[in-house]
Amino acid sequence: MLEEQFSRLIRESAMTWLDARPREQVDYAWLSTFEYEGQRIPLMDRQRGIRKPASMNAALSMRTVFTKPGDTPPYADAEGKDGLQRYKYRGDDPQHSENRALRRAHEDGLPLIWFVGIAASLYQPIYPVWIVGDELQDLQFALALDEGQRLITPGTSVSEDTKRYVERTTRARLHQPMFRARVLSAYKSRCAVCQLGHVQLLDAAHIISDSKPHGDPVVPNGLAMCKIHHAAFDSNILGVRPDLSVHIRQDILDEIDGPMLRHGLQGMHNQKLTPPLVRLAQPDPGRLDERYSEFLAH
């Protein structure tokens, strides 16, 4: 009981520390500086995917490594039919020490920190998450991303309302943060339209909305945009042609107003976007064509 209380205190302290992190994404070097009552406790293991400090009986964190666009991930973490996220075992031995450490966190109902790779050696922390199911036959654990998801029994049929709730929560707590992090990383934290480089003023814009077919939260379906250009894109004031050139709607080009309109929008007409250098991270031409047709229809 004392160990479990100690474990909970460390977790609360670690998550509070992460709340105050200076950057949205983190790396091993920074995560290794966490201390609890004068004791240094790195939050990520350099070699292992699952972190269980020697002073604890259960896992503290887990990691999903970054996979380059077009590559196959080493572990096929995915959602189940119940909408809950899955996390694959380490290897195919359920009794591997790392799997036992996660199983202990499940048995004790302890929250975990999930570090999801968004670039080489760079991670987005997602927390708190809980293990709510141990699916031995599939060599995986079922995860809950909030308290509400903890009430769902993994592998069971759920109502449409419940499934929509699970999907909304997963989108808000996992897909959207990861989409933003990966898109901004691919574009080197600069607006593709105007090259503004202040990350606080940048968004990851979906080319195809995530409510539509082909609206997957993947980098080729995203554009890094400052907030003014994102809003203009979403409201069909600004369109992007498949050749990556910007089209400003004619009524906006004809309007007379202040410097923001003149330089921020009108001045962008027929300018080329600046895409990522990595080809597989560049905007998908098919999605751009579909979205540009929608822009022209307005």
Automatic annotation (TrEMBL):
One of its GO terms (molecular function) is endonuclease activity. Residues 66-97 are annotated as: Disordered. It comes from the Bacteria. InterPro entries: HNH_nuc. It holds the Pfam family HNH_2. Residues 191-239 form the HNH nuclease domain. Keywords: Endonuclease, Hydrolase, Nuclease. The keyword Ribonucleoprotein does not apply. Residues 78-97 have a biased composition (Basic and acidic residues). This is HNH endonuclease. It comes from Nocardioides panacis.
